[in-house]
């Protein structure tokens, strides 16, 4: 089965959550993190975990993450551990958050090094983009990570890229929706006269170079309506049309010709289509091999806008805080001025016959006391 030839490597907390969702559905998963506490939260065998020695997290800081990763031997050790644990895996899929310190900084470097050490393996990426409310630093981390990933794509390092979008819901729902369809696709084994979506053809889908998105929806609604709604509500970032490869797993209640025509209308006309039916009450459409540079440009623009919006809101909040402080200072100054005025008005004026303060008995005693004190300490 293709599932036995594919391992999901979760990097950082986000990647670990994705990997754990896949492992719970009988998929193979391996976990890498700089924070031992995050790894301890994953209830799997310790042999599936790798804590980078001496690391205690990165606090979403790119420079800290690089300092940890580029220590002598760390990168090679990571990749060699993955290979030794899952030597039979033909496909290695790395999953991580674009905005995090551990995943967002390390993920692409680990994937690149894995490709260099084991060029016979297929390297795929599942990247999670930040939502619009995450901090500016996280938006900027994501921009750097996305650019790095695009370079790996152009250089032929990675094959299949899936962009998940945290704007599409809470992370638990996104993890579950992604892992459910992904796992069902990997484990699919039903064939019939309408098509033969066998293991080699499924490898053809996940090896297609470019962006990929998987849409699952009920067979109770008309196919085109269901697919269009699934695309709109999917956990994926917007994926352009025109895939190289189209995969169809269609309920046996659905006409295959209608499914094919509707899929071409919704996601584009592919060069190659692999299809089959099953006895489930849902349909799965996979659009693979989409030009990733087009999706990259869309995602980059989105992240830049999110970063700009957050920064503008931060500056607006800063200005409001300064204005509030200035207003409070003005109120305090007015209060002080008022009190000083009242005190001055109530103070009695000195008599014209009063003697000079310099000649007052009290001041003469104070000077005498000061003189005596000086003489006292001088004699000590």
Topology:
Blueprint: E1 6-11, H1 12-23, E2 28-33, H2 36-40, E3 49-51, H3 62-69, H4 74-85, E4 91-97, H5 102-117, E5 122-129, H6 136-154, E6 160-165, H7 171-187, H8 199-206, E7 210-218, H9 223-233, E8 245-251, H10 256-267, E9 272-278, E10 282-290, H11 292-346, H12 361-378
Parallel strand pairs: 1-2, 1-4, 2-3, 4-5, 5-6, 6-7, 8-9
Antiparallel strand pairs: 7-10, 8-10
Organism: Veillonella parvula
Region (Disordered): 337-380
Protein name: Tubulin/FtsZ GTPase domain-containing protein
Folded structure, characterized:
- This protein is an alpha/beta fold and 380 residues long.
- α4 crosses α5 (102-117) and α9 runs parallel beside α10.
- The protein has helices at 12-23, 36-40, 62-69, 74-85, 102-117, 136-154, 171-187, 199-206, 223-233, 256-267, 292-346, 361-378, and strands spanning 6-11, 28-33, 49-51, 91-97, 122-129, 160-165, 210-218, 245-251, 272-278, 282-290.
- It is 51% helix and 18% strand.
- Strands 3-2-1-4-5-6-7-10-8-9 form a 10-stranded mixed beta sheet, sandwiched between helices.
- β5 (122-129), α6 (136-154) and β6 form a beta-alpha-beta unit.
- This is Tubulin/FtsZ GTPase domain-containing protein.
- One of its GO terms (molecular function) is GTP binding.
- InterPro entries: Tubulin/FtsZ_GTPase_sf, Tubulin_FtsZ_GTPase.
- Residues 7-152 form the Tubulin/FtsZ GTPase domain.
- Pfam families: Tubulin.
Oligomer: single chain
Largest sheet geometry: 10 strands, mixed
| C-alpha Rg (nearest Å) | 33 Å
Number of strand segments: 10
Total of helices: 12
Mean pLDDT across residues: 88
- Strand fraction equals 15-25%
Please identify the structural class as seen in this structure: alpha/beta
Order of helices and strands: EHEHEHHEHEHEHHEHEHEEHH
Morphology: globular
Low-confidence blocks of residues: 353-371, 376-380
Taking strands numbered 1, 2, ... along the chain, how are they ordered across the largest sheet?
A: 3-2-1-4-5-6-7-10-8-9
Ends: how far apart?
Answer: 99 Å
Helix content: 40-55%
């Amino acid at each position: 089965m293709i599932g036995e030839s594919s391992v999901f490597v979760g990097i950082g907390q986000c990647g670990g959550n994705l990997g754990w969702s896949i492992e719970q559905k009988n998929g193979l998963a391996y976990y890498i993190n700089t924070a031992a506490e995050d790894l301890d939260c994953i209830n799997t065998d310790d042999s599936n975990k790798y804590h980078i020695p001496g690391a205690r997290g990165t606090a979403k800081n790119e420079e800290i993450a690089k300092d940890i990763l580029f220590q002598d031997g760390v990168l090679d050790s990571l990749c060699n551990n993955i290979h030794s644990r899952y030597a039979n895996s033909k496909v290695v899929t790395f999953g991580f958050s674009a905005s995090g310190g551990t995943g967002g900084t390390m993920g692409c470097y680990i994937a690149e090094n894995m490709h260099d050490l084991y060029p016979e393996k297929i390297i795929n990426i599942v990247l999670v983009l930040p939502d619009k409310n995450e901090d500016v630093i996280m938006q900027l981390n994501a921009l750097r990570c996305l650019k790095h990933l695009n370079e790996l794509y152009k250089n032929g390092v990675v094959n299949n890229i899936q962009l998940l979008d945290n704007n599409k819901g809470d992370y638990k729902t996104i993890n579950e929706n992604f892992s459910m369809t992904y796992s069902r696709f990997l484990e699919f084994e039903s064939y019939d006269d309408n098509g033969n979506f066998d293991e080699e053809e499924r490898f053809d889908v996940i090896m297609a170079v470019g962006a990929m998105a998987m849409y699952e929806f009920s067979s109770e609604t008309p196919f085109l309506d269901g697919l269009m709604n699934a695309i709109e509500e999917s956990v994926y970032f917007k994926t352009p049309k025109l895939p190289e490869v189209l995969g169809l797993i269609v309920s046996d209640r659905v006409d295959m010709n209608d499914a094919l025509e509707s899929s071409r209308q919704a996601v584009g006309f592919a060069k190659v289509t692999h299809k089959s039916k099953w006895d489930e009450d849902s349909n799965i459409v996979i659009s693979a091999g989409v030009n990733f540079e087009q999706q990259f440009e869309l995602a980059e623009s989105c992240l830049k806008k999110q970063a700009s919006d957050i920064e503008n809101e931060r500056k607006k909040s800063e200005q409001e805080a300064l204005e509030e402080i200035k207003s409070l200072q003005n109120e305090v100054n007015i209060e002080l001025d008022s009190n000083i005025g009242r005190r001055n008005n109530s103070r009695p004026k000195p008599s014209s016959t009063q003697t000079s303060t310099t000649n007052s008995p009290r001041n003469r005693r104070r000077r005498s006391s000061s003189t005596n004190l000086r003489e006292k300490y001088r004699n000590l």
